[in-house]
């Protein structure tokens, strides 16, 4: 069976829209795009099953930019990435609704802030960062962190505690992915 991205790229080449030498790049891009769509649709299905689509959107609005700039854990395979990501989203949604004391969330946020502030960005074997990139992503992560913390405090002060808790959950989730990345790196060095 021909995969969707292969068929699409063959059509682009046969219609002389792209050259044969560019086919692999377009195939890779299409594959990444389709995987992102599958991930996002799956996340919304999980959130819909929990009746928590608005919560997913709020958490995602903080987690996605932090994750993109701070880096973190990466699974070793596409299937592993998909399964881990879906389970991680389900756990985050569960935790965001769990009866956790506000003081715990503020404590967790403080620790997460420290992790993100001092440990980001994390590169991986697919994307090694040079010194300029490290500075760029570190600065962006810190600005996002300041914004998320300020918004969290403002929301809580204005009585929107649940939304503030979702922001805290997202920041903690991004920090946990950084810690998991460090554990993964340590395991690789140990073995």
UniProtKB/TrEMBL annotation:
The chain crosses the membrane at residues 43-67, 79-96, 141-159. It comes from the Bacteria. The keyword Thylakoid does not apply. Keywords: Cell membrane, Hydrolase, Membrane, Protease, Quorum sensing, Transmembrane, Transmembrane helix. Pfam families: AgrB. SMART domains: AgrB. This is Accessory gene regulator B family protein. It comes from Clostridium boliviensis.
């Amino acid at each position: 069976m021909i995969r969707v991205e292969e068929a699409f790229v063959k059509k682009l080449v046969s219609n002389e829209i792209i050259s044969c030498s560019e086919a692999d790049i377009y195939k890779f891009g299409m594959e990444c795009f389709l995987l992102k769509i599958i991930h996002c649709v799956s996340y919304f299905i999980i959130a819909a099953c929990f009746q928590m689509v608005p919560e997913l959107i709020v958490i995602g609005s903080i987690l996605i930019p932090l994750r993109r700039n701070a880096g973190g854990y990466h699974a070793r395979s596409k299937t592993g990435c998909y399964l881990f990501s879906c389970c991680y989203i389900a756990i985050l949604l569960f935790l965001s609704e769990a009866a956790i004391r506000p003081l715990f969330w503020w404590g967790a946020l403080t620790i997460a802030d420290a992790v993100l502030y001092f440990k980001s960005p994390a590169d991986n074997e697919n994307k090694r960062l040079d010194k300029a990139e490290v500075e760029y992503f570190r600065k962006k992560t810190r600005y996002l962190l300041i914004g998320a913390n300020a918004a969290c405090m403002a929301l809580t002060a204005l009585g929107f505690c649940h939304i503030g808790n979702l922001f805290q959950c997202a920041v903690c989730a991004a920090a946990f992915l950084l810690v998991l990345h460090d554990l993964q790196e340590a395991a690789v060095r140990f073995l």
